């Protein structure tokens, strides 16, 4: 649904007085803040006297409140609302924000749980940040890490409690037994859960002692080390190693002294403990996962440019997942060569269902922070260690899943124009991933290297859906030669141009390249989806209808005026197009300009000229009569 222009303000509207302006801004912010779960940004009008609002020293440059702060907070609140995972905000006919959502009682209940969770999380996160303890971006690892600690504690204890209750020991509670008693089942539990936590080190027990623990920072550090080391004796060692590295309990970023750091840690534990991560049926893994995705999105949205490196918007993730699974209800395994926080991999699980991904999730990430976030994300979405393999290394130079490829599905949003060794290292041309094209991607732009890597590891019956910088579709040199290789060998299934302003701090329109090794035709489908969006605050979003229209077009592979065109490979590679893969080359934009009938326009002009002549003659007659009357007088 394309964005509609906002209505112009009617003429004659008078300028609001300061009290009216204050009241209007208060009401507007109150609505936004209620949606986001934070308190009012300033006092209600009834608590502000007219004298205060009209005081002489108040002016446009010196208002009785911080307008900049109001705008910033409203913007942040809208970011929070618009990033609710699994929901789609759209503009209705009256320009109001609405949620497309549940139609059943169960769906409405789940929505209510999620909405309450998000409001609580936002309040906890902003309270801690705005108290001046630590910058929001730096604090993300603490909030997310604490959520993970709570999750594995409750998951571990719930698993043991369930077994005891089923055996008839209804009064049993793992959290209340002694560490010595728990040690007797350590060897039994590690192969099952992949790790081990002593009762005294469970989240609930550490929390109960936290405000009286003068060495809370050391306590948490010891607990985290014990959790990681417990996994070292099992198959999940690599999945837990270094998971808490970004949770630095001794960092001056959260306090200059131990006492101040512990105060922040107590507030952090209490805040995460208050998050409603349980449903009426007990612990709800989906709520943990939804909360984690929401917080990552919120932090990324408010962090500026550096936040976009590890977060792909939920709507784009869903589009990639659905494009890659057209005609399939299950797949062997899914892979992301630049997995970031894992949102793309997990979106596939949401689209197909975890049970329909037979051999799990594979990803590689070079950044330490996002690598840890991805592994935590897997756990919080109830993906067991035997079902995922996330590794940290440079994908282009040191790929780590040689023994696991090929993959039936590859989804990826690799970094745009990232430098790599490329043609500066001639030995790379011997790499079986890059050799088939006969040329390496430029050292200054590694985009095509990710394309070739994904194609190399793609199964014959698989699909790879990759977000691409638009420049790789038309630039010359080595990139043009790689495009020639892809088209001539019939690997390019579709190119989709997305709307602009979909990604965090990326305002341009980007593309999706869909690769397949087994296609029903020798052609490329070009889809112009640049107008398929709804406007949500300052960003564009893909609605369910937008996503469905794009997926249907790719599945049907039919021409549709001004939207989709199936182009033979021979036409893509002819002298005129020269392997240009830009959608605008093949899909004509609809001409929305007003059509003018020249003949009718000329007739109207002639009529106007005739009327003008008649008017002049009438004026001359009247003037003549007036002049004659004056002479007679």
Characterise this structure.
The chain is an alpha/beta fold. It has 21 helices and 15 strands. It has helices spanning 18-36, 50-53, 67-82, 105-130, 136-166, 179-183, 186-193, 203-210, 216-231, 237-240, 258-274, 285-302, 314-324, 343-352, 368-380, 447-456, 478-488, 544-556, 569-572, 583-586, 598-632, and strands at residues 88-91, 97-100, 278-279, 282-283, 334-336, 361-365, 388-392, 407-412, 458-468, 492-497, 511-516, 523-528, 534-536, 539-541, 564-568. The strands form four sheets. A nine-stranded mixed beta sheet has the order 7-6-5-8-9-11-10-12-15. Strands 1-2 form a two-stranded antiparallel ribbon. Strand 13 and strand 14 (539-541) form a beta hairpin. The radius of gyration is 31 Å and the shape is globular. Residues 1-18, 35-43 and 45-103 have low confidence and may be disordered.
Spell out the key features of this protein.
633 residues, alpha/beta, 9-stranded mixed beta sheet, two-stranded antiparallel ribbon, 21 helices, 45% helix, globular, disordered N terminus
């Amino acid at each position: 649904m394309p964005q509609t222009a906002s209505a112009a303000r009617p003429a004659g509207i008078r300028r609001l007085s300061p009290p009216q302006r204050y009241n209007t801004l208060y009401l507007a912010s109150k609505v936004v803040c209620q949606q986001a779960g934070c308190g009012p940004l300033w006092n209600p009008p009834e608590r502000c006297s007219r004298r205060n609002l009209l005081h002489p020293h108040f002016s446009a440059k010196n208002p009785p409140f911080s307008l900049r702060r109001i705008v910033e907070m409203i913007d942040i609140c809208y970011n929070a609302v618009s990033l609710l995972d699994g929901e789609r905000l759209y503009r209705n006919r009256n320009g109001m924000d609405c949620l497309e959502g549940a139609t059943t009682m169960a769906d409405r209940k789940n929505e209510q749980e999620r909405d309450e969770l998000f409001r609580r999380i936002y309040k906890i996160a902003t309270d801690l940040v705005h108290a001046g303890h630590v910058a929001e971006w730096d604090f993300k690892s603490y909030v997310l890490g604490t959520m993970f600690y709570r999750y594995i504690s409750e998951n571990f204890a719930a698993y043991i409690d369930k077994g005891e209750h089923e055996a008839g020991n209804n009064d049993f509670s793992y959290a209340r037994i002694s560490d010595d008693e728990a040690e007797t089942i350590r060897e039994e539990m590690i192969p099952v859960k992949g790790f081990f936590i002593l009762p005294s080190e469970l989240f609930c027990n550490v929390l109960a002692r936290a405000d009286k623990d003068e060495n809370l920072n050391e306590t948490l550090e010891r607990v985290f080390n014990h959790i990681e080391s417990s996994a070292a004796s099992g198959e999940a060692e690599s999945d837990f190693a270094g998971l808490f590295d970004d949770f630095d309990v001794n960092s001056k970023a959260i306090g200059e002294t131990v006492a101040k750091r512990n105060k922040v840690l107590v507030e952090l534990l209490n805040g995460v403990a208050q998050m409603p991560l349980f449903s009426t049926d007990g612990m709800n893994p989906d709520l943990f996962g939804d909360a984690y995705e929401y917080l990552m999105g919120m932090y990324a949205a408010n962090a500026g440019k550096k936040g976009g490196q590890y977060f792909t918007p939920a709507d784009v993730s869903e589009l990639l997942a659905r494009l890659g699974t057209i005609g399939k209800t299950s797949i062997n395994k899914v892979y992301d060569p630049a997995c970031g926080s894992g949102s793309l991999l997990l979106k596939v699980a949401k689209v197909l269902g975890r049970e329909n991904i037979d051999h799990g999730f594979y990803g590689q990430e070079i950044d330490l922070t996002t690598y840890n976030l991805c592994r935590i994300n897997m756990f919080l979405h109830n993906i067991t260690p035997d079902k995922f393999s996330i590794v940290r290394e440079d994908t282009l130079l040191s790929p780590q899943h040689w023994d696991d490829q090929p993959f039936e599905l590859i989804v990826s949003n690799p970094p745009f124009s990232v430098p790599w060794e490329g043609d500066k290292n001639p030995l790379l041309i011997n790499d079986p991933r890059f050799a088939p094209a006969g040329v390496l991607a430029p050292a200054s732009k590694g985009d095509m290297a990710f394309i070739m890597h994904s194609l190399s590891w793609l199964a014959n019956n698989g699909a790879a859906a990759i977000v691409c910088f638009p420049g790789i579709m038309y630039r010359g040199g080595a990139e043009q030669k790689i495009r020639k290789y892809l088209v001539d060998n019939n690997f390019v299934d579709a190119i989709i141009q997305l709307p602009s302003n979909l990604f965090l701090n990326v305002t341009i329109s980007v593309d999706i390249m869909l690769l397949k090794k087994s296609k029903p035709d020798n052609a490329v489908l070009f889809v112009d989806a640049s107008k398929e969006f709804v406007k949500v605050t300052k960003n564009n979003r893909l609605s369910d209808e937008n996503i469905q229209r794009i997926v249907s077009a790719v599945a049907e592979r039919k021409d549709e005026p001004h939207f989709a065109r199936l182009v033979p490979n021979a036409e893509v590679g002819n002298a005129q197009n020269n392997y240009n893969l830009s959608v605008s080359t093949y899909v004509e934009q609809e001409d929305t300009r007003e059509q003018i009938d020249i003949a009718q326009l000329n007739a109207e002009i002639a009529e106007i000229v005739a009327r003008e002549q008649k008017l002049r003659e009438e004026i001359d007659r009247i003037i003549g009569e007036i002049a004659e009357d004056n002479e007679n007088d």
